[in-house]
Specification:
- The chain has five helices and two strands, in the order H-H-H-H-E-E-H.
- By secondary structure, it is mostly helical.
- It has one domain (about 5-140): Arc Repressor Mutant, subunit A, CATH 1.10.10.10.
- It has a two-stranded antiparallel ribbon.
- Helix 2 packs across helix 3 (about 75-80).
- The longest helix is centred in the C-terminal third of the chain and has 24 residues, at about 120-140.
- The chain is globular, with a radius of gyration of 17 Å.
Length: about 140
């Protein structure tokens, strides 16, 4: 017997994934694999800034945080995290580099380079936030909380 929250949680999570994929694809030309790679790069870029205990809280809110506060990720780790073949990751990252959405750092690691204050980026962030709020509401409505 399923717990009563299982199916509502699964449904809401699927909706959230699809909404976030739609938002990301509005910013990034490419397929689902490209979006997944870009999400992996962006998460790795922001992780030290947002979760690092050594980063002062005030620097989390500046327009352009110092490079030292940002992370990078290797192509191999992206392949491992996403389950995509290394050659696919290499090709998709090359396209993201050419589009100016990521930058290559030392040792071949990559980092996201979005201007968080650009109107299209701010709109995508707002749409992502709305998707998360819809996810929370859907869980509440379906009894999945």
């Amino acid at each position: 017997m399923l717990e009563k929250e299982t199916r509502p949680r699964a449904f809401a999570a699927i909706e959230l994934f699809l909404d976030l994929n739609h938002v990301a694809r509005s910013m990034i030309a490419g397929d689902l694999e490209t979006v997944l790679i870009w999400f992996s790069i962006t998460e790795a870029t922001l992780r030290p800034l947002m979760l690092g205990s050594e980063v002062p809280a005030v620097r989390k809110h500046v327009k352009k945080p110092p490079s030292a506060d940002l992370g990078t990720i290797s192509r191999i780790l992206i392949a491992d995290r996403t389950g995509l073949p290394r050659e696919t990751v290499r090709r998709k990252i090359n396209a993201l580099l050419e589009a100016g959405l990521v930058a290559e750092e030392q040792h071949g690691h990559v980092r996201a380079v979005l201007d968080i204050t650009a109107p299209d980026v701010m709109e995508a962030i707002q749409e992502s936030y709305k998707a998360v709020r819809r996810y929370q509401q859907r869980l509440h409505d379906l009894g999945g909380e």
